[in-house]
From TrEMBL, chain A:
<dbReference type="InterPro" id="IPR038277">
    <property type="entry name" value="UreF_sf"/>
</dbReference>
<dbReference type="InterPro" id="IPR002639">
    <property type="entry name" value="UreF"/>
</dbReference>
<keyword id="KW-0996">Nickel insertion</keyword>
<comment type="subunit">
    <text>UreD, UreF and UreG form a complex that acts as a GTP-hydrolysis-dependent molecular chaperone, activating the urease apoprotein by helping to assemble the nickel containing metallocenter of UreC. The UreE protein probably delivers the nickel.</text>
</comment>
<keyword id="KW-0963">Cytoplasm</keyword>
<comment type="function">
    <text>Required for maturation of urease via the functional incorporation of the urease nickel metallocenter.</text>
</comment>
<dbReference type="Pfam" id="PF01730">
    <property type="entry name" value="UreF"/>
</dbReference>
<comment type="similarity">
    <text>Belongs to the UreF family.</text>
</comment>
<protein>
    <recommendedName>
        <fullName>Urease accessory protein UreF</fullName>
    </recommendedName>
</protein>
Automatic annotation (TrEMBL), chain B:
<dbReference type="InterPro" id="IPR002669">
    <property type="entry name" value="UreD"/>
</dbReference>
<comment type="similarity">
    <text>Belongs to the UreD family.</text>
</comment>
<dbReference type="GO" id="GO:0005737">
    <property type="term" value="C:cytoplasm"/>
</dbReference>
<keyword id="KW-0143">Chaperone</keyword>
<protein>
    <recommendedName>
        <fullName>Urease accessory protein UreD</fullName>
    </recommendedName>
</protein>
<comment type="function">
    <text>Required for maturation of urease via the functional incorporation of the urease nickel metallocenter.</text>
</comment>
<comment type="subunit">
    <text>UreD, UreF and UreG form a complex that acts as a GTP-hydrolysis-dependent molecular chaperone, activating the urease apoprotein by helping to assemble the nickel containing metallocenter of UreC. The UreE protein probably delivers the nickel.</text>
</comment>
<dbReference type="GO" id="GO:0016151">
    <property type="term" value="F:nickel cation binding"/>
</dbReference>
<dbReference type="Pfam" id="PF01774">
    <property type="entry name" value="UreD"/>
</dbReference>
Length: 224, 280
């Protein structure tokens, strides 16, 4: 396995379209729930341990070679609002294009053919990691980190937050990212015996409610 | 000769003076008879879960769960199994809120609800809120198995702390399978030991959170519309009325998710969702 492949996959410049999404930060800024680095950190910690944990489990399971279509169904069952299912599939489709160009594999081709409108992004991310020769824990790290790097980057643009402060938030959450990635990878190991029910299903009510609300805004800076 | 029982029978409302928690599983079986009335061949309360039949036999049987003593306490393992056989109709309510309280040993309490609904059958599962008292630790699961043409109406409300107190630790998983496929799988985790639970991504300071779910084959042809509830719908008011969303799942079902400052305002949002879901 190549550690550098993980850097390529997790790089914010990996052309998978994530920069257009705020991960719920835009509605949280508008509602006055994120106003500075401290409130950004609170938001990110909650997102990491809910949506981030679910994504880490799905990505690790896909990287371990579990059936991506069953994982895609499991992702649907864990995503109760249509706005977030649509975003996950749109991001999955963009991740699929980038991954097939970067680390071509028969498994990616098969999933692209089975889900032409896109599979849930963490499933595609996990399969991309597998194609790159990475381990399930690597895929979980990439998914967990992405769950907070997106909102942190968006907050810089939405609030004119100092990028140093936003990056310091990510650094302060590094131990939490490690823990969430490990939880996701541990859960993925249990899929063999217990099926996809073993994967985390942590929910964040406000992320669901505000994502659906945000999708109806006529004017917004971010797609989600 | 007869053997003496280890545990003497004790009247309802008291607890054995044991540090270990109690184990109890209550069971309900609803079955339609030859003229279409739903009968209750099994209605077995157990421990703190006493069951009462409500009203005369009808197309829909009605059962009320009456808390016969304080529970769940830390260390308790409670279960409630309800099955509605094909063609039957059952509505289960509760007489009062369930309060999770600390036990003597610091062990978590477990409460597992298993609901099974057959083809053409309908279950309305409408308990009162679950209140997580300070110092309590409850792990709850609600697992629903639905036949392809089963109908389900389910409400779940969690209140974090009694009035003016801190919340206990509450972890609750709701899994709904229909025709063998998982339709909904959601775990909520709040309170001490759960990172980020009170933050702006999860509850944002709200202390009541709930879901209202309707599963029906009617949604196969006609998926429900999205509807925003309370403050999410842009209804501005001085007091925080809470907010929520009613939206279709990836399957023939609609789910409302809502957060509010207290149980009263949460119920108002979920009632609004219920009216909207019924209107289609």
């Amino acid at each position: 396995m190549s550690r550098a492949a993980l850097l390529v996959l997790a790089d914010g410049r990996f052309p998978a379209g994530g920069h257009a999404h705020s991960g719920g930060a835009e509605p949280a800024v508008t509602a006055g729930r994120i106003t500075d680095a401290a409130t950004l950190e609170t938001f990110c910690r909650g997102r990491l341990h809910t949506a981030g944990l679910v994504a880490a489990g799905l990505a690790a399971a896909a990287a371990a070679g579990h059936d991506p279509l069953l994982l895609d169904d499991a992702a649907d069952a864990r995503t109760p609002v249509p706005a977030l299912r649509q975003v996950a599939r749109r991001l999955g489709r963009q991740m699929m294009r980038a991954a097939r160009a970067t680390w071509p594999s028969a498994a990616l081709d098969a999933l692209a053919a089975a889900r032409p409108r896109g599979a849930h992004q963490p499933v595609v991310l996990g399969l991309a990691a597998r194609s790159a020769g990475l381990a399930p824990l690597d895929a979980a790290h990439a998914a967990a980190y992405e769950s907070i790097s997106g909102p942190a980057g968006a907050a810089v643009r939405l609030l004119s937050l100092d990028p140093f402060d936003a990056t310091a938030v990510l650094a302060r959450l590094a131990a939490d990212v490690d823990r969430v990635a490990q939880q996701g990878a541990d859960a993925a190991e249990r899929v063999v015996a217990e099926g996809t029910d073993a994967l985390p299903a942590a929910s964040a009510p406000l992320l669901d409610i505000t994502a659906q609300q945000h999708a109806a805004w006529p004017v917004r800076l971010f797609a989600s | 000769m007869t053997l003496a029982l280890d545990t003497p029978a004790r009247p309802e409302g008291t607890r054995a003076p044991s540090a270990a928690g109690l184990r109890a599983t209550a069971r309900i079986l609803a079955r339609p008879d030859s003229v279409g009335l739903t009968r209750l061949p099994v209605l077995d309360g157990d421990g703190p879960l006493a069951l009462r039949r409500v009203g005369a036999p009808g197309r829909q049987a009605r059962v009320c769960v009456v808390g016969a003593m304080s529970a769940p306490l830390g260390g308790d393992r409670l279960g409630l199994d309800a099955t509605v056989e094909a063609g039957g109709a059952l509505c289960v309510t509760a007489a009062a809120a369930t309060v999770a309280l600390p036990g003597r040993t610091g062990e978590p309490a477990h409460y597992d609800v298993r609901l099974t609904v057959g083809d053409g059958a309908r279950l309305d599962w409408l308990p009162e809120p679950l209140i997580s008292a300070a110092g309590s630790d409850l792990r709850m699961t609600t697992t629903v198995e639905l036949a392809p043409t089963a109908r389900l109406v389910l409400r779940e409300e969690q209140v974090l702390g009694r009035s003016g107190e801190e919340t206990g630790a509450l972890r609750s998983r709701l899994t709904v399978r229909r025709a063998g496929r998982t339709l909904l799988d959601q775990e909520t985790a709040y309170g001490p030991g759960v990172p980020g639970w009170d933050g702006s991504a999860v509850l944002g300071g709200h202390r009541a959170v709930g879901q209202f779910l309707v599963v029906s084959p009617d949604f196969d042809d006609r998926p429900a519309d999205v509807r925003l509830l309370g403050a999410a719908a842009g209804e501005r008011s001085a007091a925080d009325e809470g907010q929520g969303v009613l939206a279709p799942l990836a399957g023939p079902a609609v789910l409302a998710t809502a957060v509010a400052p207290d149980a009263l305002r949460l119920r108002r949002l979920l009632d609004e969702a219920a009216r909207s879901a019924a209107a289609g």
